[in-house]
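ok, trying the design again with the full structure, not the truncated one.
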């Protein structure tokens, strides 16, 4: 039987949709601009352009509508869980806008809606997570200045950290994706995950030079004579990634490789949620719809949320304030950073700004 015809729960189990694998993909697709923009993509030129991912929400609605209703009920309780475009106002200055992005080149994602385009066109400065990723020389300089963040600089290798009974499968999975294991032996696992955690169609777009949404906004802003600003550095982002336990990253890489073509399904579901502006559904979906791996996965979720989302929300909010105070800013950050009591929207309100959704 074709796996796509299986009931959702059976299919998820068969394809090994573990919590850490889902988290790994969520992180790489919605967080790390440095890798999303800059990491070389192995064997992308031969990849098919057509995307084949299935919306798992549709499968869940068909096979387990009760679970989907529970996810939606949880999402409904998430503060600021609907909307990707928000107006920020402060007395005495021109309004600014906050826009949630996905670090993808999917045409559905890159195309701005009318209201977002109006806000973008009316801005005087475009602010993205980090402007350093627009210059490959700066990317390489940052990585060379901090080699320990992306590479093993001692005698450690990737395979030396992988459980012995899983090494052969990992090597085979990498080779199947056109990545010779020897060529990535000294790479930190999150660098390799960036090569394998996106659909073949997205690799093909990037290999053809298609910019991800954030880069497109920056390019369009420059072309229109707008100023550019950034909220983080590459070192900030890589440092946050490197601070998580190595076991977390190894397990995430292994489970992501096990997903096979189901990676396409997870990404397609995220795109569907993003286009529907249902940012509050990201976490409930990943927690409830995909099988978890027990306490280790729960700890992984907690560490990820604090280090990669919550702590960075605070940093980005603090660094966005001067741009907002100057007025006329179009601030674009990953959509995962918008919702929740500790999301950027609520943190901006705590600073005294008036923030309202534009839908």
């Amino acid at each position: 039987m074709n796996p796509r015809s299986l009931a959702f729960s059976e299919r998820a189990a068969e394809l090994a949709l573990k919590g850490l694998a889902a988290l790994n993909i969520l992180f790489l697709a919605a967080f790390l601009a440095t890798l999303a923009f800059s990491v070389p993509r192995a064997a992308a030129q031969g990849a098919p352009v057509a995307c084949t991912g299935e919306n798992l929400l549709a499968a869940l609605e068909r096979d387990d509508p009760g679970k989907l209703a529970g996810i939606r009920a949880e999402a409904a309780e998430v503060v600021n869980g609907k909307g990707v475009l928000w107006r920020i106002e402060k007395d005495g200055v021109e309004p600014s806008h906050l826009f949630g992005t996905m670090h993808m080149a999917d045409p559905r994602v890159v195309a701005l809606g009318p209201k977002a385009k109006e806000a973008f066109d009316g801005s005087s400065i475009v602010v993205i997570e980090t402007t350093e990723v627009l210059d490959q020389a700066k990317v390489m300089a940052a990585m060379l200045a901090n080699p320990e963040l992306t590479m093993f600089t001692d005698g450690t290798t990737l395979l030396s950290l992988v459980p012995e009974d899983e090494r052969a499968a990992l090597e085979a999975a990498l080779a199947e994706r056109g990545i010779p294991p020897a060529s990535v032996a000294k790479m930190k696992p999150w660098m390799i995950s960036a090569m394998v955690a996106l659909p073949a169609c997205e690799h093909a777009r990037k290999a053809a030079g298609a910019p991800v949404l954030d880069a497109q906004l920056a390019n369009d802003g420059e072309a229109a004579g707008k100023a550019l600003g950034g909220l983080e550095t590459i070192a900030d982002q890589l440092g946050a990634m490197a601070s998580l336990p190595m076991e977390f990253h190894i397990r995430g890489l292994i489970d992501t490789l096990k997903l096979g073509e189901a990676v396409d399904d997870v990404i397609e579901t995220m795109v569907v949620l993003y286009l529907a502006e249902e940012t509050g559904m990201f976490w409930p979906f990943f927690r409830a719809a995909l099988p978890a791996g027990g306490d280790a996965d729960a700890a992984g979720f907690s560490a990820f949320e604090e280090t990669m989302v919550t702590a960075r929300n605070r940093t980005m909010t603090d660094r966005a304030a001067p741009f907002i105070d100057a007025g006329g800013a179009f601030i674009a950050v990953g959509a995962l950073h918008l919702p929740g009591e500790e999301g950027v929207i609520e943190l901006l309100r705590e600073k005294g700004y008036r923030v309202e959704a534009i839908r």
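Keeping the full-length input from now on. The radius of gyration is 20 Å.
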